């Protein structure tokens, strides 16, 4: 059985037997290495508890398109905050009551800042006032009171207090009085009246009662000699521009000037100060 039998030389048959034996040994060696490698692989941990899975990893699992790199969105300080509505609050929001404004720095109001503002429409002011001395009263002509010329009236600018704090809402007033000796008629159209805040000295126009509200409405008044007629507005303390198209900013602490006008009749200056919020 062990001796080679066949027509070929004996060494050929021995060589074939050794090759077959080496093939069998190689097969078993390869099988052993494969089994060892499989045993070294980790077993399936199964579903993980959500509480022990990092939040970032959970988000990647939830969104297969998510990247593993964190993305941080930073606000661009160069971008202005949304333009405020005509009443000074962001469009679509309701001004909360009883809150105070932040300290003023003259910067655009941040989105979401609770910045309540008042209605900046001018309104008749019934604050009792003393009559102004005038010339001797003249009877009205038979055709009725004439139109008031600029020489027949005086226009004044008033503020409820010359000292305010940033964040206050000063009450500003326009006062017109007939200083002539006879009654006269003047158009006190809301668009012809204007209350304006300037810096001090008077160089930059900072706010006007006509920028955001106060549309034109005819208001013919018969002005009695010496009897002041006043209009008031509660100022929000914010800046404005014609048409209210620019972001409004809170005026910082400083010295300011108040001027008023009726058409081209301009008042003298009234000075006031905004102190820093403590």
Report what the structure shows.
The chain has 278 residues and is of the alpha+beta class. It has a domain at 123-275: Immunoglobulin-like (Sandwich), CATH 2.60.40. Helix content is 14%, strand content 23%. It contains 2 helices and 12 strands, in the order H-H-E-E-E-E-E-E-E-E-E-E-E-E. It has helices spanning 10-40, 55-62; strands at residues 123-125, 153-159, 163-165, 171-178, 184-187, 193-199, 205-208, 220-223, 229-234, 254-262, 265-266, 270-275. Strands 3, 6, 7, 10, 11 and 12 form a 6-stranded mixed sheet that branches. A hairpin with a 2-residue loop joins strand 10 (254-262) and strand 11 (265-266). The longest helix has 31 residues, at 10-40. It is rod-shaped, with a radius of gyration of 44 Å. Residues 47-105 have low confidence and may be disordered.
Main sheet specs: 6 strands, mixed
Overall structural class, as computed from helix and strand content, comes to: alpha+beta
Q: How many strands in all? A: 12
The helix count comes to: 2
CATH topology call of the domain at 123-275: Immunoglobulin-like
* Shape verdict: rod-shaped
Q: What kind of assembly state do the chains in view correspond to?
A: single chain
List low-confidence stretches. 47-105
Rg is 44 Å
CATH superfamily of the domain at 123-275: Immunoglobulins
CATH architecture of the domain at 123-275: Sandwich
The sequence of SSEs as H and E is HHEEEEEEEEEEEE
- How much helix is in the residues? 10-25%
Chain-averaged pLDDT: 73
Protein name: MucR family transcriptional regulator
Biased composition (Low complexity): 85-108, 136-147
Biased composition (Basic and acidic residues): 119-129
Region (Disordered): 44-149
